Structure formats: structure tokens, C-alpha cells
Amino acid sequence: MTSGDAGTASENTNTSDIRSWRSIVTLIVFVLTNIIVLFPFHIPVPVPIALRDGILKALVSLRIIAPRPPTSPSNGRSKLIWMRFPVNFLTAPLIADLFLLAILAIGKKEVHDGTVGADNISPLDIMAFFLSLAYIAISIDASGLIRYLAFRVLQWGGKVGHRLFFYLYAFFFILTAFIGNDPVILSGTAFLAYMTRVSSNILHPRAWIYTQFTVANMASAILVSSNPTNLVLAGAFDIKFINYTANIIVPVVITAIVLFPFLLYIVFADESLIPVSIKMHELPEEIKNKKPINPNIPNARANMEEQEDEHLNDEAGQLLSLEEIMNPFLDKKGAAFGGIIMAATLIAVLALNASSASSGEHPVFYVTVPAAVILIVFDLALGWMNRKETREIARQSRDKLEISHAEKQQQRRLQPIDELPSAVPSETEPSPISEITPEEEKSPQHVPAAMVTGKSSDSEAPKLEDGKDKTPSKPTTLSSLVVDLWRWAQETFPTSTTVLAHLPLALIPFAFCMFVLVQALVSRGWILVFAHGWDHWVSKTGTVGAIGGMAFLSVILCNFAGTNIGTSILLSRVIQAWQGIHNQTIHPGASPISDRTFWATVYSMALGVNYGAFSAAFSASLAGLLWRDILARKHIRVSRLDFARVNIPIIAISMVVGCVALIAQVYIIRSNEPYDR
User: Fold this and answer.
1) What CA–CA distance (Å, rounded) separates 166 from 173?
2) pLDDT at 549 over 90
């Protein structure tokens, strides 16, 4: 779209629509949806056992799933089972949109504008750009480059705690600025979890993991390509990518400079968090000199995750963690080619965007999608060339894993009967959803049928040791074919399948549904009401009030308005409506917005939606949910209360410093002349 389309959403200045019942319901649904995103839950749904069994029998007859082992009769017990339906950031916005469609609160126009785009915001273009660039960034991560560079930084920092803290702080900041925060959180979080575990005098990883999360989200504000929120903002106000970076980089860098000593000497000023001298356990030479194994290959490290669970706090567990950080795998070809593709793509994107007359003239995904396709072809070709080696590693690891599971099952069989856990859940339990999940039957952790029926495990062990499972084969089904095909793809193309598994695909339905929800607020007049409220605030407080008010709103709404993505969509529409209020073409005689105040508002929002990720709730950003899940897998539990308690002083100082720097910047480089697109 051209810049001339800006403000069309605000041309209807009649706010009387908000009095209709559909408008009121729309606002209530929007608020409830965002509360659910913040506090997800499950709804127990009763399902008749007869219906479940009928569906399962039909699926078995169609050879979609394998036959299930017979279950004991209910003997007069409840004829219902309870399944838990998740209501979260994926399902809640979709349900809200469907509900609004059902009551005719929204229609074809809102769905079109929320997916195809309107007023310079094009969700399809944004998703194509972000996902294609995400593939390139995560492919670089899958090559092992980020962990290898972190290992080198660890070597440079040595055992001096404050120096290592600074090196990692600068490393994560620079890396995120170029490739975005998702790859840095994927690899950096696990690296820090291992690093702090193998240090004898770092009693808690709090300082390191919170600092990394803060820096990753702060630096993502610098480039438009680093965060989808920046893409929404740049598109909404037709900002050239190079101009966006030029206007935001100074406040961000100043924030990073001021924040470091604040973190080191105030927030985390404790020897148990950041010791002056870090005491690291040493990795034995035989392990240090061992050829690292590609972790993207299925079960490449055999039963490492299970060993971590068993040896969490002993020497064996520390050796596993040490090997992860001190003997990292690096695919040099993949890292080099991915780095070249990323650099060339970013340069081409900046050049194309700078040469375009408007943001929609030459969509930047014209560059990123072909670049991602080139890298996909390269990853597939490299995987095919190395398929013999990767398949052999996967086979050997799978055999070791099966033997290990067989040994554990044998140990369980030798336990007294009263020590064995109950293996047959009651059909009246509230969460039997696993009963109808055929994938579990294919997982390596699934207990073999022979062990459930009581056959001798002694006769099973030799079969596994020979690397051949001689148990009766199950009939081929669609689910088994899919599982086998996916395992074959993982063993043949480990990099491509790893990247696919880590792509932020959940962002697609969430973002589209949020775009439609916000468009519903536009069509029902609520956005214009919010814009009038913002206009009154700015008219009373001026440029400084605009910066402070928008910064505060954006951070708060990140926690209560559907993550920072939902916040950027909502506030962009509000600012566009604010433009419409002062559009002299639409409203002759309206006082114009000054250039200084307008851009102060836009860039304070940019600071807020990026910094807001490290504020009070995990759901302030999708990166926060990812960060929490990675830490949980590494046995580091972070509660909601701890997350808010640690982050509130960090976000407070970050926003104050960033806003002060932005105020100084706009008063130096911007004038009070009327803003004119």
C-alpha cells in the first residue's frame, strides 16, 4: 500500500457505534482474550467412552492408527472420560474471532483487513518476511555457530566473573542485533544453564539468565528484521528500515551502556550470583579431544536427557554439562554459508527498502523468501551428502537407547510389587487424553508390550543387543508411516528438520487472529475512542508526555494485550487514528501534529514493545514463553512471581534511560514544524 492510504481507518470519526451491543461485546471479548493469553487454562470436556471407542475403531479400520491393547471393562463406573481442552494464546484469539463472526460483530472486511492487510499493515507480508528470515537465523543456530562463539567468549573471559559477565553481555547484545532474539534465546539460554551448573561457586543462574533475556529483547529493537513488532511499526508508518535503525539505535545503545553496571552492582550484587572468580570444573582430556557429535541427529547423544535427570547434581551430570559447553559441535560449512546468506539478505533488504518510494512498493519478502529457499536447498543438499554418516550415528544411538530402556525395565521388574507405580489409569481420571494419542506408542520411551504382559526381559535383551528388535511388528498405519518418514528425514536431513521444529510457526495463527481482533475494534469505533484519549493526553503534556505516556502504555499492554505483537498492532492503529483526527484534508482547520511529537510517540512505542518483553509476565512476548520452556527442560524453574520481581527494576531503569535518551534526541534532530507524510 502507499502512504496515501494511511489514516483511512480513521476517516470515520463517528464514535456513536460504540453504544451498540455488538461494539460492547467486541471490547469485552478483546479484553477477555488478552486475559486468557496472560493466564491460560484447560477446560475439562466430557466425552462418552462409547463415542471415543467408536472413533478409535473407525481410525483403526481406516489404518490411520494401530489397534489399541484391550482395556478392562468399566464395571458400571462412569461412562464418560474427561479431556482437557487448552485455552491459551493459540486457541483463545481464534475462538474470539469465530464468536465475533457468529454474532456478526465482524464480517468479511475485518477478516480481509486483518489477514491481507489495511492502512500500510500487511500481515501476510510481515509473516512471510519474518518466517523466511527466521529460517536463516535458526539454520545458523543449528550449525552450532552460536554455541561455539559462546564457548570462545567463555575462553576469552576466563575465570574472572565480572569480565566474563561483561563479555557475554556484549556478545549477546551484538549477536541479537543482527540475527534476532529467537536463535540467541534458543542456544544462549541452554549454554548459560550448563555453564552455571558446572561452576562450583555460582549458586543460582539468576543473574546470567535474566541478563541474557534482557539483552536479547533490548537489542532486538535495533533492526526492523529482528522482531515482528518492528515490522508492524515500520509498515504502519511507512518508515524506511535504515531510518528506523538510525532513530532507535542511540537510545538502545545508551540503555545498554547504563544498564550493565546497574545489573552488575545493584540488581545482582551478590557473590553467589556473579563471583569475582569463577571456579569451573575441568573437562577430562579424553572427552575434550573426542569428536563432537551433531546434536541435531536424533538421539545423537543417546539418553543424555535421561542421564541429566538422573545425575542432575552429581559428578556425572557435571561432566555431561561440561561436554555440552566445552566441546561444542560446529558445522563449518553450514555456519559459513548461513552467515553469508544472512549478511547478503540484510544488505539487500536495506537497499531494496531504501530505494522504494513507499513501504508496499517492493515488499521485502521478495528478498528474504528466495534467500531462505537457497539456504533450505543448501541444508538439504549437505544433509544428503552426509546421509551415510548421520544415519549410522542415529542407528548406533538408537540401539544404545533401546538397550538402556530394556535394562531399566528389567530393574523395575525386579522391584517388589508394592514399589511399582500403577500402570493402568482409571478411565474416570480427569486427564486421560494420552490414551488416544497414537504417537506415544511410537516414542522410544513407550514400554514394550512384552514387558507389560510379563514376558521375560532376559529373552528381550539379546535381541536389542543385536540391534534387531524381533518383537512382532505392528501393522503399518498412516501414523506409523508419518513417524517413520519423520525419523528418516531427521536422520537424513538433521539441520533442516531441526530448523523446522524450532520455527515460530505458532506465531502465524496467533498474529493473524490478533490482527483481526484489533480490526474489529477499528470497525466498531473503539480505536477512535482510544485515539481521542491519547490526543487529550498529548495536548496537555506535550512531547515529553507523549514519550512517557506511550512508553508506559506499551510496556503495560505487552503484559495485558496479547504479547508485544498484539500491543504493537493495537497501538499502531491508535496512532494512525490519532493522525486521522489531525488530518486537515479530512478535518479542515484541525491543528497539525508537530514532527517532534509524532516521531517521539512512534519511537517510544518501539522502545516499549521491545523492552516490554522483560517486564512482568512471560506472555509479554513469545520469546518469554520460549525462554521459560527451555529453562524448565534444563531443570531451572522460574515462577511468575520471580520473573516479575527480578524484571521490574530492570524494566524501570531501562525505560527511564531509553526515554531520556529519546527526549534528548528528538529535541536535537526534530523540529516543531507540522508533521507531514
Assistant:
1) 11
2) yes
- Residues 6 or more apart whose CB falls under 8 angstroms from that of 152 comprise none
Q: Enumerate the H helices of 120-273 as residue ranges.
A: 123-142, 145-157, 161-179, 181-197, 206-219, 228-236, 241-262
Q: What angle do CA 121, 127, 131 make, to 5 degrees?
A: 150
Number of CB atoms found within 10 A of residue 99's CB: 15
Q: Which of 239, 216, 236, 235 is nearest to 226 (CA)?
A: 216
The CA distance from 414 to 456, in Å, is 11
Residue 219 has a pLDDT of: 94
- Is 387 within 8 Å of 297 (Cβ atoms)? no
In which band, very low, low, confident or very high, does the pLDDT at 118 lie, cut at 50, 70 and 90? confident
* pLDDT winner (highest mean) among 344-353, 367-376, 441-450: 367-376
Output Rg (C-alpha) for the chain, integer angstroms: 28
Q: What are phi and psi of 44, to 5 degrees?
A: -70, 125
165 touches 211 (CB < 8 A): yes
pLDDT-derived band at 552 (thresholds 50, 70, 90) equals very high
* Residues 196-223, mean pLDDT to the nearest whole number: 89
Strand (E) or helix (H) holding 43:
strand 41-48
**CB-based contact 56:105 (threshold 8 Å):** no
Q: What is the mean pLDDT of residues 110-125?
A: 84
Q: Which three cell numbers stand for residue 400?
A: 544404545
Quick one: three-class SS letters along 3-31?
HHHCCHHHCCCCCHHHHCHHHHHHHHHHH
More confident residue, 567 or 288: 567
Answer left, alpha or beta for residue 200, where phi above 0 means left and psi between -120 and 50 means alpha. alpha
- φ and ψ at residue 86, rounded to 5 degrees: -75, 135
SS3 of residue 204 by DSSP: coil
- CA-wise closest residue to 496 among 481, 486, 484: 486
Other residues' Cβ atoms within 10 Å of the Cβ of residue 390: 22
Distances 505 to 323, 410, 500 between C-alpha atoms, Å: 31, 41, 9
Q: Which long-range contacts (CB under 8 A, 24 or more apart) does 107-111 make?
A: 109/523, 110/516, 110/519, 110/520, 110/522, 110/523, 111/516
- pLDDT attached to residue 459: 42
Asked whether 543 and 600 are in contact (CB, 8 A), the reply is yes
448, 444, 442, 435: which is closest to 479 by C-alpha?
442
Cell readout for 10 is 480513521
Nearest CA among 586, 592, 585, 608 for reference residue 662: 608
- Contact by Cβ (8 Å): 363, 189: no
Cα–Cα distance, 656 to 647 (Å, whole number): 14
CA distance linking residue 377 with residue 63, whole number of Å:
34
The pTM of this model reads: 0.80
Higher pLDDT, 170 or 398: 170
At residue 147 the predicted structure's pLDDT band, cuts being 50, 70 and 90, is confident
Tell me the pairing of strands 41-48 and 80-87: antiparallel
Give the residue from 176, 195, 134 showing the smallest Cα distance to 328.
Answer: 195
User: What is the average pLDDT value for the chain, to the nearest integer?
Assistant: 81
Q: Where are the alpha helices (DSSP H) in 356-503?
A: 365-385, 387-413, 439-442, 449-452, 461-465, 478-492, 494-502
Question: Residue 121 forms beta bridges with which residues?
Answer: 118
Q: What confidence score (pLDDT) does residue 493 get?
A: 92
Q: Residue holding cell 573426542? A: 290
Cα dihedral sign for 194, 506, 518, 98?
negative
Closest CA to 607 of 544, 657, 669, 675: 657
Residue 274 and residue 269: Cα distance in Å, rounded?
A: 7
Q: Where are the alpha helices (DSSP H) in 45-122?
A: 49-61, 91-102, 108-115
